[in-house]
Design a protein that fits this description.
The structure is a homodimer.
Chain A (H helix, E strand, L loop, with lengths): L3 H16 L7 H8 L3 H13 L3 E4 L5 E4 L8 H9 L26 H17 L4 H4 L1
Antiparallel strand pairs in A: 1-2
Helix pairs in contact in A: 1-3, 1-4, 2-3
Chain A binds a DNA duplex through α3.
DNA sequence: TATAAATTCTATTAAACAAGTAGGGTATTT
DNA sequence: AAATACCCTACTTGTTTAATAGAATTTATA
């Protein structure tokens, strides 16, 4: 399961994508339309900004807008930003790799082999689908 | 990411599968060989027993053994037993379905559509692979 | 039949994480 | 100057994770 934070991020990006590349939106509007708690959404948009997916303008009449085209924002990138690894085991993760302490030999490990296949498949789709596929 | 509990369950099942259908194993042995905290493993084996995957014999010389053949134990079943839904969103889960409170229309929801595809793909593999594939 | 061996059951714990909430600070427009 | 809207830090409440502890129960066997 993905966190609500991650789901809200997808919804916010989708909302902004509808306006892309013209106007920008305010958090209050996104929160209202997408049914996301406003203050929680602010934190999410801030993370998306740090991640380089959106940018913002402060002050009256300001707001958020997409930096990249919707079809260039991969779902996997967003997932990783909020929920970390896409893989089901740390030892098969590409971006969040960690050795299993209880496993003496990764190469011989059957779990490693099987869950690498599952990761490959999921990863492929997650890095192929973009925000524009949600629209 | 799957929980350690779930990973340990897979390892325990694999350990038992090596002996199948002949002998049974004791938790102490599994714990030692597979590097799993013994008391934690006991809880896991109990859950696997309640789930109908293993059975046990109490008393001296007792232990756990597989009830089903390794090739009939689907990875998805075990995953669900310990970690719940395989899907990334509650609204696309088969066994743990829940409506998203923030979403007015599931049919029109782009997130729903995309993550249903991802679930379908993952589910297929998770219900196709079995414990014998880990061996 | 006593004893040791093994599972079974219930409870507790510390740490991390999830999902927000709160409130003030900073920048910009009007 | 005032209103607007993003920016930042901290806090809270509840749940989950990953164990640990100890006693109860069952069974083989010496």
């Amino acid at each position: 399961m993905m966190s609500k934070k991650c789901k809200y991020a997808f919804k916010a990006l989708t909302h902004l994508a509808k306006r892309y590349p013209d106007t920008h939106c305010q958090t209050a509007e996104i929160a209202r339309v997408e049914n996301i708690p406003r203050k929680f959404l602010e934190l999410i948009l801030l993370d998306l900004k740090k991640g380089g997916f959106v940018n913002s303008k402060q002050g009256a009449g300001g707001g958020y807008y997409l930096v990249k085209a919707p079809e260039t924002i991969l779902l996997g990138e967003i997932y990783r930003l909020f929920d970390g690894a896409i893989a089901l085991l740390p030892c098969v993760s590409l971006k969040f790799y960690e050795k299993c302490k209880d496993c003496p030999d990764e190469v011989a490990c059957g779990l490693h082999r099987v869950f690498l296949q599952i990761r490959d498949q999921t990863l492929k789709l997650m890095l192929q689908k973009t925000v524009s596929d949600i629209l």
